[in-house]
Design a protein that fits this description.
about 30% helix
Length: about 90
């Protein structure tokens, strides 16, 4: 996303919480470990998201490729927007 400000979020500060990764459109929670729990990570993104940003969870299991999880309806809205731009 050239020209877009993306940064690491501040974690668990008093009276202030933000996503693990701060972007203009997504509320990103990240999980790393032996075997991550994607559904719990996505639920955390939903619960902590006090905005209209799309909640997603990025997971990285040990020695595996990272992946993301998001609600199907959010994914389909994104695909629809991309489809409209390509026409």
């Amino acid at each position: 996303m050239p020209g877009v400000k993306i940064k690491r979020g501040y974690q668990r500060t008093v009276d202030f919480d933000e996503a693990d990764v701060v972007t203009p459109w997504f509320w990103v929670e990240c999980k790393v470990g032996k075997r991550t729990n994607p559904r719990a990570g996505l639920q955390q993104a939903k619960d902590e998201n006090g905005t209209s940003k799309v909640p997603i969870c990025c997971c990285k299991d040990d020695r595996k490729e990272p992946f993301i999880i998001m609600d199907l309806n959010d994914f389909l809205r994104m695909v629809n927007k991309l489809w409209e731009q390509e026409r």
